[in-house]
């Protein structure tokens, strides 16, 4: 009895639909992705071997550039509450439009009397603006006011306070920032550094090899 012949099916797969979906997804990501703009404030912090990453949520960052000028950044979820508190405390009389622009701003780098003009500068044009920084001296400590607004707006909630100082910035700028935190009774903050590998042959490497937990 002869063997039955099995009809072979067509093994070709039409990939047209798959290619269409792939190009649609690619187009979607290209159109919706927001590219990070160039930083208008250049800060090169010192290096360290600390492995703890800086928190990204509920973060209030005080940056100090090499000229000793002070700037602040905060998480998007904080901006609305903080600017409402500051506007009330300092009688800024900010409009709803002012607050909308503030929420869209990347950072604050100007005294309060210039805030409304500064927050209207487009991110791509920030590098053309002369940044004066936030006053932090004893006669006009607006940094203390910003920190106070954050503390009062976030009562009962944790804020991740960070200090990011340039490796070439002067001690006086760091002193003013620390004093501004102290005046608000804020004693816990993280110093942002550039991570680097553990130096070979160091005591830290020996502890790591021995399985000892690295201090953060």
Describe this protein's structure.
The protein is α/β, with parallel strands linked by helices. The protein has a domain of 129 residues. The chain has a 4-stranded mixed sheet. A hairpin with a 5-residue loop joins strand 2 and strand 3. The longest helix has 17 residues. The mean pLDDT is 82.
Summed up:
By secondary structure, the chain is of the alpha/beta class. The protein contains seven helices and six strands; from the N terminus they run αβββααααβαββα.
Number of strands: 6
Helix content: 25-40%
**Assembly type of the shown chains?**
single chain
Separate helix tally: 7
Q: Looking across the biggest beta sheet, what order are the strands in?
A: 3-2-4-5
Notable characteristics:
about 35% helix; two-stranded parallel sheet; four-stranded mixed beta sheet; 7 helices; about 220 residues
């Amino acid at each position: 009895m002869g063997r039955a012949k099995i009809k072979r099916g067509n093994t070709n797969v039409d990939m047209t639909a798959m290619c269409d979906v792939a190009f649609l997804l690619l187009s979607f990501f290209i159109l919706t992705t927001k590219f990070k703009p160039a930083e208008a404030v250049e800060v090169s912090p010192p290096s360290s071997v600390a492995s703890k990453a800086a928190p990204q949520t509920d973060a209030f960052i005080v940056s100090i550039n090499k000229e000793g000028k002070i700037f602040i950044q905060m998480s998007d979820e904080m901006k609305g509450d903080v600017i409402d508190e500051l506007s009330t405390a300092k009688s800024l009389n900010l409009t709803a439009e002012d607050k909308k622009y503030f929420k869209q701003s990347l950072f604050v780098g100007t005294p309060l009397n210039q805030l409304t003009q500064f927050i209207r500068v487009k991110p791509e044009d920030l590098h053309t603006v002369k940044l004066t920084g936030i006053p932090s001296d004893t006669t006009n400590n607006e940094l203390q006011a910003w920190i106070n607004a954050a503390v009062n707006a976030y009562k009962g909630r944790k804020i991740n306070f960070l200090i990011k100082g340039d490796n070439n910035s002067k001690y006086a700028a760091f002193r003013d920032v620390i004093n501004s935190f102290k005046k608000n009774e804020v004693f816990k903050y993280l110093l942002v550094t550039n991570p680097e590998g553990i130096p070979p042959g160091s005591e830290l490497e020996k502890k790591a090899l021995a399985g000892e937990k690295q201090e953060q």
